[in-house]
Amino acid sequence: MVEPRGSYAGDVAPRDAWESLETDPAAALVDVRTSAEWSFVGVPDLSPAGKRVLLQEWQRFPSMQIDPGFAEAVAETLKSAGATEDTPVYFLCRSGARSQAAAAALAALGWTRAYNVVGGFEGPLDGERRRGSVAGWKADGLPWVQS
């Protein structure tokens, strides 16, 4: 884990997030990408850990406006599933920028273990201007599915 920056708990590598999701029954993953990204690119598959990813858009598709109720909606969903403000919550987007903002938003509500997954789901562009092979959830070979 990387030291915390700003108001969220810090940045973690995808494999570290996966390990926590597998070993900590309370740990949760929130995918903050858009509905279009979930449909066309895929989503993390947490079924091997006996869990489901929480899908909550940080920016609403297609307008791409930040959802002003994002943090409250995530907190309510997590609490209804038994989470507390000390539960580790990992945020994932395409490459790690939106998820950092989302983690900070939840932390601002008092959640002490809101983490950003570095590299996101697809990571940065490779030499051929494609994502998914350099870094991130997919490049690390972690479970995912596409509809």
TrEMBL record:
Taxonomically, the superkingdom here is Bacteria
Q: Which SUPFAM superfamilies did the record assign? A: Rhodanese/Cell cycle control phosphatase
**Which InterPro entries does the UniProt entry name for this protein?**
Rhodanese-like_dom (IPR001763), Rhodanese-like_dom_sf (IPR036873), STR4-like (IPR044240)
Q: Where is the Rhodanese domain?
A: 23-146
Tell me what this protein is called: Rhodanese-like domain-containing protein
According to its UniProt entry, this protein's organism is: Methylopila henanensis
